[in-house]
């Protein structure tokens, strides 16, 4: 008779050992449940997984019902702002800059990067979205450069209007000095012609 056990005998022996441990108290592997029932480690792990799964499903539901529609709305608003830039005399530039600022504050869950608003949702979800990322990056570079250029033009216009306003205020406060300067320039121009 050999000292080794066959696989069937090993399984039966393990089952008996498990049964004996459960009858003796489980050797510290079980704890009392809420109703006084012993809970095994496996049951506790499964309960924890169910709780995590519920949280994940809630996050997915929030993303599906709230976040995605909001992001689609901000994408379409950004697309509208770019297309109405000229008809609105540049006033939609305010929303474009606001969108960029809010993307920095809230992240890309609600506000897309510049350039991504032109990529349809179906294309970005199909095939891993590698082509959509490339196209979005190309559009994004063009939009960032255009936004910087337009912001510089607006800054120059604002500074020019402010300068004219300050010049008019100075002329109103001290008109005689400007009249004297204007007459002096006219006299220099007249006397310079005859020479």
Write the layout of secondary structure elements.
Layout (H helix, E strand, L loop, with lengths): L6 H18 L6 E2 L5 E2 L1 H43 L9 H14 L14 H5 L4 H44 L1 H19 L2
Describe the protein:
It is a single chain. With 195 residues, the chain is mainly alpha-helical. Helices cover 73% and strands 2% of the residues. It has six helices and two strands, in the order H-E-E-H-H-H-H-H. It has a two-stranded antiparallel ribbon with strand order 1-2. It is rod-shaped, with a radius of gyration of 38 Å. The termini are far apart.
**Gross geometry:** rod-shaped
- Please report the total strand number as a whole number: 2
Beta content comes to under 5%
Per DSSP, the total helix count is: 6
Amino-to-carboxy terminus distance: 137 Å
Main pleated-sheet profile: 2 strands, antiparallel
Oligomer: single chain
Strand and helix order: HEEHHHHH
**Mean pLDDT over the residues:** 80
**How are the strands of the largest sheet arranged?**
1-2
Helicity level: over 70%
What is the C-alpha radius of gyration, as a whole number of Å? 38 Å
Q: Residue ranges: pLDDT <50 for 5 or more in a row?
A: 26-32
- What is the structural class? mainly alpha
């Amino acid at each position: 008779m050999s000292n080794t056990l066959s696989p069937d005998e090993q399984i039966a022996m393990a089952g008996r050992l498990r049964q004996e441990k459960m009858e003796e108290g489980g050797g510290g592997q079980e704890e009392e449940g809420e109703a006084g029932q012993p809970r095994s480690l496996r049951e506790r792990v499964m309960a924890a997984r169910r709780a995590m799964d519920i949280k994940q499903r809630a996050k997915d539901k929030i993303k599906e019902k709230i976040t995605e529609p909001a992001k689609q709305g901000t994408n379409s608003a950004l697309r509208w702002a770019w297309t109405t830039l000229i008809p609105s005399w540049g006033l939609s530039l305010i929303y474009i800059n606001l969108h960029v600022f809010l993307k920095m504050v809230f992240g890309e869950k609600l506000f897309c990067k510049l350039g991504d608003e032109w990529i349809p949702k179906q294309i970005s979800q199909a095939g891993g979205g590698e082509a959509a990322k490339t196209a979005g990056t190309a559009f994004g570079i063009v939009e960032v450069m255009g936004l910087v250029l337009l912001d510089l033009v607006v800054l120059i216009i604002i500074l020019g209007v402010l300068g004219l306003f300050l010049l008019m205020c100075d002329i109103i406060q001290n008109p005689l000095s400007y009249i004297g300067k204007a007459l002096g320039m006219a006299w220099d121009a007249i006397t310079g012609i005859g020479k």
